[in-house]
Structure formats: structure tokens, C-alpha cells
Specification:
By secondary structure, the chain is mainly alpha-helical. The protein has one domain. The protein is 57% helix and 0% strand. It contains five helices and no strands. Helix 2 packs antiparallel against helix 3. The longest helix has 25 residues. It is elongated, with a radius of gyration of 22 Å. The N and C termini lie far apart (71 Å).
């Protein structure tokens, strides 16, 4: 028995295209959306400076973009995730709180007060800020309600 290395034949472009098309047939749009949401949450955690060893990666603008994108996709993935969607909502809430902390810290370091109730769309306003038409729990800034 000889141990001669065999030179495997490289697939042709046509074979590669057929394999790719087969993979596409097996992938569901919902799966891609869920993966996108998870990637955005992971990237948001990095941009929030929450990943140990990467605290200097904090970027409030990128964090806000990640939060907004996840919130936009959440209605599409909640039915797919079922009860696991709560974990996604919890993660977004943590990112929103970190965004508020980062922007408050940035405003404080620049010598200007953080604006009252100036949270990005869908985030809880600063504590004590009243939102017209909001109930007492929502206006306290302690309750984040999906879609509001």
C-alpha cells in the first residue's frame, strides 16, 4: 500500500454554481433574518463596549444603528423564535440602557447636561421625563415596551 498523495480535482465553475444554488434552496428567509438579528446584537454589544477587552470599541452611533436595525427586524423574527424572542428583547433592552449610559457620559464629559427625554426612538426616556399619553410605568423610564 502506498501513501501517494492524490490531487483532488477542483470543482468547475458550473459545479460550484449548482452547489450554491442547492444551498440557497435549503435556506429560509426567516433563518437569515434571525442570524442577522443575532449578528447585530453581537456587534451592538461590541460597539457598546460590553465585550471584555474591547471596552474602547464603544461607538454610540454604531450602537444606535444596531439597536434600530434589530427593532425593525424584531416583528419578522418573533414568530419564528416563539418564546425565545424574549431573550432578543432583553438583549435589545440592555443595549438601549448602555446607549443611554454612553450618551449621558459623553454629554457629561462635554460639560453639558444630557437632554431630558431625548432617548432615541423607541427607547425609554430619561427618568423623570414625561411622555404625553404614556402610562405611569412607561413614563417612569423603567419599562421598555416593544414597538413604542
Amino acid at each position: 500500500m502506498t501513501d501517494e498523495p492524490q490531487d483532488p480535482r477542483q470543482p468547475t465553475e458550473e459545479e460550484m454554481r449548482a452547489a450554491y444554488e442547492q444551498q440557497l434552496k435549503e435556506i429560509r428567509v426567516e433563518d437569515v433574518l434571525v442570524q442577522t438579528v443575532l449578528s447585530l446584537i453581537n456587534l451592538g454589544s461590541l460597539r457598546a463596549g460590553l465585550v471584555p477587552g474591547n471596552e474602547d470599541e464603544a461607538d454610540p452611533d454604531q450602537l444606535r444603528a444596531a439597536i434600530d436595525a434589530v427593532r425593525a427586524l424584531l416583528p419578522q423574527v418573533e414568530p419564528v423564535l416563539g418564546p425565545d424572542a424574549r431573550q432578543i428583547r432583553d438583549a435589545v433592552s440592555r443595549l438601549q440602557m448602555e446607549y443611554a449610559r454612553l450618551t449621558s457620559a459623553a454629554a457629561g464629559s462635554e460639560g453639558r447636561p444630557a437632554p431630558q427625554g431625548a432617548a432615541p426612538e423607541g427607547e425609554a426616556p430619561a427618568e423623570g421625563a414625561q411622555k404625553e399619553g404614556a402610562g405611569p410605568a412607561q413614563s417612569s423610564g423603567r419599562l421598555w415596551v416593544p414597538g413604542r
